[in-house]
Design goal:
Elements lengths: L1 E5 L5 E2 L14 E5 L3 E10 L12 E7 L5 E6 L8 E8 L2 E6 L4
Parallel strand pairs: 6-8
Antiparallel strand pairs: 1-2, 1-3, 4-5, 4-7, 5-6, 7-8
The protein binds zinc ion.
Zinc ion (ZN) binds next to loops.
């Protein structure tokens, strides 16, 4: 999937930002980033906001895609830190991941 890399420093992001939070310049180039990563940390949401209530309980996880890039992911399945997860879909600008090997 597509990500963005600052042209001036190693900062990477998945969402378009107006300027780089690390060096504050405004030029980015598109970069292909892996759609598979590892669960870095997660929280289980049992009482969800109304728009996500139908999915609860679910996990909001920080997934490392590369050593510099972590993204916030929604995962419905049970997970543990260190699990490999793969992008399932982008829903309402949210990245929905699922454990690798689970169909
Ligand atoms: Zn930068």
């Amino acid at each position: 999937m597509k990500g963005y890399q600052c042209t001036n420093c190693p900062y990477e992001t998945m969402v378009e930002v107006a300027f780089c939070p690390q060096c504050r310049q405004q030029a980015f180039k598109e970069k292909e980033v892996p759609n598979i990563g590892e669960v870095y940390s997660f929280t289980t949401i049992r009482v969800a906001p109304p728009e996500f209530a139908v999915f609860a309980p679910y996990q909001v996880a920080l997934v490392s895609l590369t050593d510099k890039l972590k993204i916030t992911a929604f995962i419905q399945e049970d997970i543990a830190i260190g699990d490999s997860v793969i992008l399932k879909e982008v829903r309402e600008k949210a990245f929905v991941f699922k454990p690798v090997g689970l169909e």
